[in-house]
Amino acid sequence: MVELRTTKGTGAERAVLDDAALAEFRGSLRGSLLLQSDAEYETARQVWNGLIDRRPALIVRCAGAGDVINAVNLARTRELLLSVRGGGHNVAGSAVCDGALMIDLSLMKGVHVDARARTARAQGGVTWGDLDSETQVFGLATPGGAVSTTGIGGLTLGWAGCAASTASVATIFSPLTSSPPTVGCARSVPRRIPTCSGPFRGAAATSVSSLPSNTGCIPSVRSS
């Protein structure tokens, strides 16, 4: 049995998942479900900022989009406080909340590069370093974060420079040269996003503004 914080009222209320509910939820996942008593829990709850010391009630280590959808559905139906960990680099530690259900995307590292279209499709756990490793094989680069361990999800959705990530060709200035060298650029294209209502929604390849924002059904979602 596990008690979790909810989004009801002041947030002081708790929801209880009994052993049967936990077993049913665990059985719906390809990835793993971690409780505070599990050996991997301490490592999974850590984020980049070592000063953050929060303990979620459950951690879902997602293996794919299906796991994300199942976790969001559980949070919606039970009105659970929910957080999402991408790269875990947010300095405020918003990827992890005490007593919450944490969706951990860090194992979702898939990157597909279309060299002809100069686009890249990446899963939610991909960091900027992961993306660079794949795009550079094709002589491409994507302007964006300067720190390789930062998750591309947070940068694409919440960073002030996210518009640059949708450019099909970019000129990158190097402090070591007097003239700016031109390089090919791979666009990071969000195509399918699991939403609070359960199913995927599509996003246009040309505009970050087309991405669906928090729909309000889980008002306390936090991500990094």
What does this 3D model show about the protein?
There is one protein chain. The protein is α/β, with parallel strands linked by helices. It contains five helices and 15 strands. The protein has helices at residues 19-27, 41-44, 65-78, 128-135, 152-158; strands at residues 2-5, 14-17, 32-35, 58-61, 82-85, 101-104, 111-114, 119-122, 140-141, 169-171, 182-185, 187-188, 192-194, 200-202, 222-223. A hairpin with a 5-residue loop joins strand 13 and strand 14 (200-202). Residues 160-184 and 205-224 have low confidence and may be disordered.
Task: List strands and helices in order, with pairings.
Layout: E1 2-5, E2 14-17, H1 19-27, E3 32-35, H2 41-44, E4 58-61, H3 65-78, E5 82-85, E6 101-104, E7 111-114, E8 119-122, H4 128-135, E9 140-141, H5 152-158, E10 169-171, E11 182-185, E12 187-188, E13 192-194, E14 200-202, E15 222-223
Parallel strand pairs: 4-6, 5-6, 5-15, 8-12, 9-11
Antiparallel strand pairs: 1-2, 3-4, 7-8, 10-11, 13-14
Mean pLDDT: 76
- Report the radius of gyration as a whole number of Å: 19 Å
The coarse silhouette is elongated
Low-confidence stretches: 160-184, 205-224
Amino- and carboxy-terminal Cα gap: 28 Å
Q: Estimate the strand proportion.
A: 15-25%
